[in-house]
Design a protein that fits this description.
About 40% of the residues lie in helices and about 15% in strands. It is of the alpha/beta class and about 400 residues long. The protein folds into two domains: about 10-40 and about 280-395, Aspartate Aminotransferase, domain 1 (Alpha-Beta Complex), CATH 3.90.1150.10; about 45-280, Aspartate Aminotransferase, domain 2, CATH 3.40.640. The protein binds pyridoxal-5'-phosphate. Keywords: Lyase, Pyridoxal phosphate.
Length: about 400
């Protein structure tokens, strides 16, 4: 199979009307929001065409999506006890997360996140009246268990219920949490009475060398929840759907989720996501091979063109975290909650001077300043041109 990232041409990509390709002028190379520059997996495209041909565009129904995820989880992750009876379809991962947090916390309660982390974690949690407490990652971009323990203790001590929104694998550092790390997380969560919601949207994007561990497969995690989706790995984020899964001890909580939440995902989303998990494995393997090559290419390009920038090699996902603090570009963050498209510091500078759009580190919370996130789910030519442009811009000022 050909490399999916080498299929669409730049001209074809520029005709796309989604956020990645429309938010900036045509001379900007967009390596920011988490969309992939691929054509659809053929079996997924066929499933969508089939539904359209049948006029099959009503409300979603049934458990086909969860069944496809269970089959995939059993084959890829040796997670054999995903119980379909403890699943619900939800509109997308973030709205699923919000609905799950509503089941186990009340307004004013604390939700812990590991900053720097996917920016909408802040916006969605606070919009729903919960307080975000940050437990910063270690300098290696991984969960720091001592810091997490302190955050759990602080939140539990302040009264009210406490939840922890785990990003597994982690966006933006690409850390793939190990089974030992997750066991310790589960042990801490039990000790402090913290309910865990694990966002596993990037799970299928873990290459064979870095094993993904579903949080619910870890002993002690039975009272937790996970949310999975085909949205990132098969580039279906514009065709909305996701699956929420409860551990055995959280089943009763999940049953309290309003039935109407399951009317939110689009039926085409459910059809295409289920098909992706069911038959999209070969295509996904080609994506993973392409990402491995790109992960190495970005490392080499940063070494060659961006002296002073540190590349945190991502184990999983198609996102990489670049530490640009040595470049000394000042941050001028907007007041209040940052949104994904806010730009400051190095991301602002590279947009203005190199015409490359990256995600700005400051929107990922504490620890994000002075960093940028680069999305490498694109062709090698685009990556090479983008990082070379960044290098040329820097050498102009150095
Ligand atoms: C960690 C994480 N969670 C959730 C999302 C968004 O998922 P959805 O569009 O299904 O809400 C993203 C998108 O990049 C993400 O990286």
């Amino acid at each position: 199979m050909t490399n999916p990232f080498e299929e669409p041409t730049l001209e074809q990509l520029r005709r796309r009307t989604s956020m990645k390709w429309r938010a900036y002028p045509a001379d900007v190379l967009p390596l920011w929001v988490a969309e992939m520059d691929v054509n659809l997996a053929p079996t997924v495209a066929a499933a969508i065409h089939g539904a359209v041909d049948r006029g099959d565009t009503g409300y979603p129904h049934g458990t086909a999506y969860a069944e496809a995820v269970a089959e995939f989880a059993s084959q890829r992750w040796q997670w054999h006890d995903l119980d379909i009876g403890r699943t619900a379809i939800v509109p997308d991962v973030m709205l699923g997360v919000v609905e799950l947090l509503r089941l186990v916390t009340d307004r004013g309660d604390a939700v812990i996140v590991n900053s720097p982390v996917y920016a909408p974690f802040y916006a969605f949690v606070s919009h729903d009246g919960r307080r975000v407490i940050e437990a910063t990652l270690g300098i290696d971009g991984r969960i720091d268990l001592d810091t997490l323990e302190q955050a759990f203790a602080r939140a539990a001590g302040s009264g009210g219920k406490v939840a922890y929104l785990l990003c597994n694998p982690h966006n933006p550092t690409g850390a793939v949490h190990t089974v030992d790390e997750l066991r310790e997380v589960a042990e801490l969560a039990r000790r402090f009475g913290v309910r865990v919601v694990s966002d596993e949207i990037h799970a299928p994007l873990v290459p064979p060398g870095a094993r993904f561990t579903p949080y619910l497969s870890v002993p002690g995690a039975e009272n937790a929840f996970a949310v999975l989706s085909a949205s990132k790995a098969w580039n279906l984020c514009g065709i909305k759907a996701a699956v929420a899964i409860a551990g055995a001890e959280a089943a009763a909580d999940l049953r309290r989720m309003p039935e109407e939440v399951s009317h939110g995902p689009s039926h085409l989303g459910v059809i295409s996501h289920a098909e992706a998990f069911r038959s999209g494995g070969i295509w996904l393997d080609a994506v993973l091979r392409g990402l491995d090559a790109n992960r190495n290419l970005v490392g080499a390009l940063v070494d060659q063109h961006l002296p002073g920038v540190k590349y945190l090699w991502p184990q999983g996902t198609y996102l990489a975290w670049l530490d640009c603090r040595q470049l000394g570009f000042a941050e001028h963050a907007a007041d209040g909650l940052a949104v994904v498209s806010d730009l400051s510091g190095p991301a602002r500078w590279f947009l203005d001077h190199a015409h490359v759009a990256l995600s700005s580190g400051h929107v990922f919370g504490t620890g994000g300043d002075g960093h940028v996130r680069i999305n490498f789910a694109t062709s090698q030519a685009i990556l090479t041109e983008a990082v070379s442009r960044m290098g040329r811009a820097l050498s102009g000022v150095q």
